[in-house]
Amino acid sequence: MKWFTKRRGLAWQFGGLLVMSGILCGIFFAVMHLSIEEFLFQQINSPEFQEQATEKRITEFQTYVTVNQLSTSDGAELAQWVRKNPLLLMEIYRSNVLIFTSSAPENQAVLANDTEAPYYEWMSYYVVEFADGNADVLLYSDDGYRYSTIATIFELMLCTLLFLGIFLHGCQKIVRYIQLISKEILAMESGDLDNAITVKGSNELSTLAQGLDSMRQAFRAQQEREAQFFAANQALISEMSHDLRTPLTSLLIYTEVLRYGKYENQEQLLEYLDKIDSKAQQIKQLSENILEYSLQSKETVPELETPAPIEMVFEEPLSEMITELSRHGFMCDVEPFGEPMLIAVRGQYIRRIMDNILSNIQKYADKKQPVRIWPLESELTARLIFENTVADVSSGSSGTQIGVKSIGSLMEKMGGSCQIENTDGKYRIALDFPKVEVEKLKEESTEPGG
């Protein structure tokens, strides 16, 4: 019965189920009816069965006559017995003269006829004792029709039950599918969004199941987005806390220098005041942009500044880094920049990146070995490399890596990348910036409105 379940409507399925049930029941009825009719024909038409059935009726008739003391002339009472035995014809003869027939019990012309009827030896005559004497009784009965009618009623009842059984069995498949969908909906309501809703067939139920599964996928995607957003916010808070800590440390150092008068002259005092102001402005800018960054995804591309040579971009940040490293007892080996390499960056991101690199060097670098800084040019990128020797390698202290993650995130926002290597006691951070070709820059500057 799979052929009708592949259709597209429940109404068609139920209709097909009814038709299929009817066809199967019709075939079953035809086979069973023919088989039973053949069996009844062979059994009822046998001489033994006919003789036994007739003798049984004669015995019943004799009892009826004796109890009621009937004579052959009591036609009404005799006809009444015949009516209690349908499909029966009875004739009564005396001296071969017909004196009663159940086909015309009130017909006086027939009963007054004294003509002798022929005697057929192949017919069975039974002697019945009446109140007015003995008489010969002849019975004709259609037992085949009677038993066939009973068998047909039984067959129809059985086929009706079979029809209902087939139809309910087909409906049970649909009911089981509805129960399965209901169970899966309850699981989805309890928070299980990983297991798909079962989609079977191509009817209204399968359409409903497909819609529920699409809703489940949408809920799961929303949950994943919310989880990613929460994780991104947590990472943002960690990165911002880390980025704020470095300029705050520098600010505290400069204020401590001023508090204890550790400056040589007025010019150096003004220089420290400028640095304090710069760090304070950096902290202010970071705090103002926290909300902005929390609403942006990592894929958001920020607006970059006008392309400039890499030595100009890093001139001030490198100078501050070298000064801070020198104050903390680090030696620096800085290689000069070669040919001008134009890069487009965002100054605020560069300051945050340099603060993170400075913080990592101060925490993990060996002061006995110089910190190396050198540029490296390739066909597509301008690279700036920072390398230091790791202090106390055996301790295995690697920190939380928040600063490194922040550097990678900021480089990605500017279209660049960050490469980290930590081998043989050497820790290297390489910043790769996409190069801006000079010819392309000139073409953009000559365009109308450029």
Automatic annotation (TrEMBL):
Coiled-coil features, chain-numbered ranges: 269-296
Residue ranges annotated for the HAMP domain, each copy included: 172-224
Histidine kinase domain span: 239-437
GO CC annotations, alphabetized: plasma membrane
Transmembrane segments: 12-36, 147-168
Compartment annotation: Cell membrane
Main location: membrane
Enzyme category, top tier: transferase
Enzyme Commission code(s) on record: 2.7.13.3
Record-linked Gene3D superfamilies: 1.10.287.130, 6.10.340.10, Histidine kinase-like ATPase, C-terminal domain
Membrane topology qualifier: Multi-pass membrane protein
Catalyzed reactions: ATP + protein L-histidine = ADP + protein N-phospho-L-histidine
MF terms (GO), sorted A to Z: ATP binding; phosphorelay sensor kinase activity
Keywords: ATP-binding, Cell membrane, Coiled coil, Kinase, Membrane, Nucleotide-binding, Phosphoprotein, Transferase, Transmembrane, Transmembrane helix, Two-component regulatory system
Record has Ubl conjugation as a keyword: no
Record keyword Nucleotidyltransferase present: no
Pfam families, per database record: HAMP, HisKA
Protein name: histidine kinase
The species this protein was found in: Acutalibacter muris
